[in-house]
């Protein structure tokens, strides 16, 4: 009977700890994420969607802006999953690469900008809690993770360009490297 009682107590303790963590998030990180989302939507409204669209279109012209700047700006301004919509301004050939770069950035920036991917914030919070218990600064780790992520996301995006070219050649298809103005305006 003692085993069953200890199991039941441990089982309930798990849910009590989960509830305490949830409440701490409701008074800590959730308001921060909400305010960041409001700030980003306000900035987009202030700048105008046309200007944000123009930035995306201009940054599609070379690999550095396409896989370094555009994913950063779109993830920061729009968050996950809306940041993927910026691919509509890219030629068809570059869309898979943008997706690869942007998808990774939505994860590697979560420690510094939690509003980008709040659905996976629990992953970062678990890591940060461990770092904090070691007496280390979790923001230093978040910034390093973001910078390494930016470089690796760029490499991942550009590598996907080569993969796309290989698959296109293998399949005998040709994807456009020019922006389709009709698709952008729809």
From TrEMBL:
Biological process (GO), any one: phosphoenolpyruvate-dependent sugar phosphotransferase system
GO cellular component terms, A-Z: membrane
Keyword set includes Magnesium: no
Keywords: Membrane, Transmembrane, Transmembrane helix
Keyword Transferase part of the UniProt annotation: no
Record Pfam families: EII-GUT
Chain ranges passing through the membrane: 22-47, 68-90, 145-168
Stored PANTHER family: PTS SYSTEM GLUCITOL/SORBITOL-SPECIFIC EIIC COMPONENT, PTS SYSTEM GLUCITOL_SORBITOL-SPECIFIC EIIC COMPONENT
Record's protein name: PTS system, glucitol/sorbitol-specific, IIC component
